[in-house]
Amino acid sequence: MDGRNSYLILIELTHALVQLRKGEVKMRETNHFVFFWKGDDIFSNFYYAPFIHQGIEFKWSEQAVMYRKAKLFGADEIALQILKAKTPKMCKDLGRSRQIPFREDVWKNARETIYKEVLVDKFSVPKLKAKLLATGDKILAEASPYDTIWGIGYAENHCYAEDPAKWIGLNLLGKVLMEVRGELAEKVSVQEK
User: Fold this and answer.
1) Gap between the Cα atoms of 166 and 154, Å rounded
2) Are 110 and 176 in contact (CB under 8 A)?
3) Would you give the end-to-end CA distance of the chain in angstroms?
4) Distance (Å, rounded) from C-alpha 29 to C-alpha 144?
5) Angle, in degrees to the nearest 10, between helices 104-122 and 172-192
6) What is residue 146's DSSP assignment?
7) pTM score, whole prediction
8) What is the pLDDT along the chain (193 residues), one digit of tens a residue?
């Protein structure tokens, strides 16, 4: 094993240990909501959780989504760079590259399907599936004050955070996660019968 691979493995192990020390899940949970946003929140796309999607191992769901986005637009070189990225932020930045012949209409049509397929695979990992199913029927909300598409547009402690009618964001990530949770719960229910 060369020094670079050893270094990358050390980074991944260190990141995993930090998550464990932090108790893995730092999101805020109420009787009706689970708010998440930061990379140490299990529902975040920046959360380190290796999984297989379309026969490829990804470290973060952000990596898988940005890879699929690059492939959707035929940007194979960017897709390869995303696979080699060392952080989820690098994946996100590469997925926004001007080298991708991006078309908003095409992305809008495909984005939720891509996210759902990626998240089904991520949350098929038993430990992650258990955490998602444990949220029951609570509303999952990405409490990003900066994201009005995938998030609610507010931080978790904002006065409107617990009032979906006042959210300025679409919360698409939360909605897709709830769809995935529903499908996984149905599969578990069928298997138990």
Assistant:
1) 10
2) no
3) 47
4) 15
5) 40
6) T
7) 0.84
8) 455 555 544 454 454 444 444 444 468 899 999 999 988 899 999 999 999 999 999 999 999 999 999 999 999 999 999 999 999 999 999 999 999 999 999 999 999 999 999 999 999 999 999 999 999 999 999 999 999 999 999 999 999 999 999 999 999 999 999 999 999 999 887 776 6
